[in-house]
Amino acid sequence: MNSTNTGKEWPKTYLKRQFRYIYLRFIRLRGHPHELALGMALGIFTGMLPIIPFHTIVAVTLALAFKASKITAALGTWISNPVTIYIVYKYSYRIGSFILGFDHSTKSLTPLVAAINNGELLNVVTRILGAGGMGVAAFLLGGIVLGVAFAVPSYFILFYFFKTFVSWRTSRKHGKA
Q1: Angle (CA) 76 79 85, round 5°
Q2: What are the b/e assignments for 109-128, b being 16+ CB within 10 Å?
Q3: Which of 122, 141, 142, 175 could in theory staple to 92 by disulfide, Cβ–Cβ 3.0 to 4.6 A?
Q4: What's the rounded Cα separation, in Å, for the pair 21 and 132?
Q5: Within a domain: 3
């Protein structure tokens, strides 16, 4: 911090610089709208799965397999962030257990449901793994259903967005020349 900035101005300046940096990185994002939108959709799909430490790795691997943007795939996984992860896991379990016909009051899953309801993320991950095949199956199936439900419409919305964005960037580039 230099001597001209007071303590109150520093956070504002820092945030302004960070937003500017993110904006410039976004503007320089390269790729066909299909690749960018598909990458984001694959990231959103992966973000809904209960594989929390491996979201980005799986999303980038899927992006490589489907020839999509690896950067947008990694960004898409942030649909599961510290604010939304509890909701995602809660509904993954509910949907998966409904499809598989599990009773929510199953004794082996009671600690897992309590951990989800209390928002204890680290405890949730260990409880998922400790719940056995029933719990893992419910979470995976629910995560797949939620992933498809969010990824498919997001592909089409983001395809339109990136198509508009690429044409805007092209017109801006030719306008300056």
Answers
A1: 145
A2: beebbebbeeeeeebbbebb
A3: 142
A4: 45
A5: no
Nearest-CA neighbor of 39 among 56, 64, 63?
Answer: 63
Biggest distance spanned by C-alpha atoms of the chain: 68
- Domain extent, residue 142, equals 9-176
Please compute the mean of the pLDDT values over residues 102-113 and round it to a whole number.
63
Angle at CA 39, nearest 5°, toward 62 and 145? 70
128-157 confidence digits (pLDDT tens): 666 677 778 888 999 999 999 999 999 999
What is the model's pTM? 0.75
| Predicted confidence (pLDDT) per residue in 39-71, tens digit | 999 999 999 998 877 899 999 999 999 999 998
**Number of domain units in the chain:** 1
